[in-house]
Each structure stands twice: as structure tokens, then as C-alpha cells.
Automatic annotation (TrEMBL):
This is Hexosyltransferase. Pfam families: Glyco_transf_8. It comes from the Eukaryota. Belongs to the glycosyltransferase 8 family. Residues 1-29 form the signal peptide.
Length: 213
């Protein structure tokens, strides 16, 4: 009988110890979970910072035809050489010039730029472009990209479109920061209001009307 009593006492002690161990393990696991939760949220907050900074990116759209890829790269170089802003380039080209444009970037100092090459489908112009034998160079499909920017899937509140015959000598961020009034889809430089440029501006307006804006 005394032996049985001792065995029962030992079993009770073991059960108490087991309960203590289980309680300790449970509390430790709960503490670790809270720590992991705090760490994951702290890292999430850090990860969000680059995405928040993307609102400061200046999106620039420029075309790169096969025969004028060098000119396009010269324009891009002039932009990044005159600004400290973060610029993202959307380089629009045709299928036959995609590899050429990428090669120009990867084998020069431009390899550090942020960019995306977009392929423009010239079939969207079928039946919409009137032949003009006096200026056949103006019939190149990429000359009409500016009228079809929504088709490129570029999701920015606004962007800067630059021709490949431009050398930028100022900070592109200053241009991007210009406020456009509600309902305005584009802006001209102030010298476009000179009498000598009125005809050119009117002709651009006719093009815009022709494309349905």
C-alpha cells in the first residue's frame, strides 16, 4: 500500500511537470509568433518605401526606329545627363528594331537606365493615314505613336513625349512638374504662341481632330 501511494505521488509530480512544460512551450511559441509578426510588418514598411518613391519617377516616352536608334539614344543620354531625378524610359519601336534598341543600351553607359521597350503595332494605322508623296518620311508608323499612347498600356497620371531629334539641355523634372489644367491633354512651349508658329499649331490641331481627340 505505501508503495502504491509513492507511485501515485510520482505520477502526480510528473503530470505537474508535463503541464508546466506544455504551458512554457505555448508561451514561447506565442512570443515568437508576435516577434515574427512585428518583424514582417517592419520589413513590409521598408519594402513600401521604394514603391512610394515611384510616384517621383518621371516617365518619358520616345520612339526608336531602326534607322534612327542612334538619335534616340543621344536624346536619352541628354536627358539623364541633365537631371538628378529618377527617369523611366518607355522606348517605343517596331518589331524589327527591338533587338537593336536593346543592344544600344546594354553595350553603352546607358545600361544603367530604367527602361522598357514597347512594340508598336502599325496595323492600327490601316485606313487612317493619308499618303503624302511630298514627305514620305512622315509616313513612318512611329510618327503616329503620340496619338495612340493609351494603347501602349502605360499607367501614369502624365508622361513626357520626346522626339528623337531633341537634345535636352535642362532638367526634365522641371518640365514634368508643370501643372496642366483639368481637361487639358497636352501643353506647348510659350513660343508656340508667336505669329510665325500659328500655322504649325493649327496644323497640329487639325491632326488631333483627325485622330478623334
Amino acid at each position: 500500500m505505501p508503495l502504491l501511494k509513492k507511485i501515485n505521488q510520482v505520477l502526480v509530480v510528473l503530470l505537474v511537470l508535463l503541464a508546466c512544460l506544455l504551458l512554457h512551450s505555448s508561451l514561447k511559441a506565442s512570443t515568437q509568433q508576435k516577434k515574427v509578426y512585428r518583424q514582417s510588418h517592419r520589413f513590409a514598411a521598408v519594402d513600401l518605401q521604394p514603391r512610394e518613391a515611384e510616384t517621383d519617377v518621371v516617365p518619358v516616352i520616345i520612339c526608336a526606329s531602326e534607322e534612327r536608334t542612334g538619335a534616340t539614344m543621344a536624346t536619352i543620354n541628354s536627358i539623364i545627363s541633365n537631371t538628378d531625378a529618377s527617369v523611366f524610359f518607355y522606348i517605343v519601336t517596331l518589331r524589327d528594331a527591338v533587338k537593336i534598341a536593346r543592344r544600344y543600351i546594354e553595350k553603352t553607359k546607358l545600361k544603367g537606365i530604367q527602361y522598357k521597350i514597347l512594340e508598336f503595332n502599325p496595323m492600327v494605322l490601316r485606313g487612317k493615314v493619308k499618303p503624302d508623296s511630298s514627305r514620305p518620311d512622315l509616313l513612318h508608323p512611329l510618327n503616329f505613336v503620340r496619338f495612340y499612347l493609351p494603347l501602349l498600356g502605360i499607367s501614369h497620371r502624365k508622361a513626357i513625349y520626346v522626339d528623337d531629334d531633341v537634345i535636352v539641355q535642362g532638367d526634365i523634372k522641371d518640365l514634368y512638374d508643370i501643372k496642366l489644367k483639368a481637361g487639358h491633354v497636352a501643353a506647348f512651349a510659350s513660343d508656340c504662341d508667336l505669329p510665325s508658329t500659328h500655322e504649325m499649331v493649327r496644323s497640329i490641331g487639325m491632326q488631333v481632330d483627325f485622330y478623334g481627340f
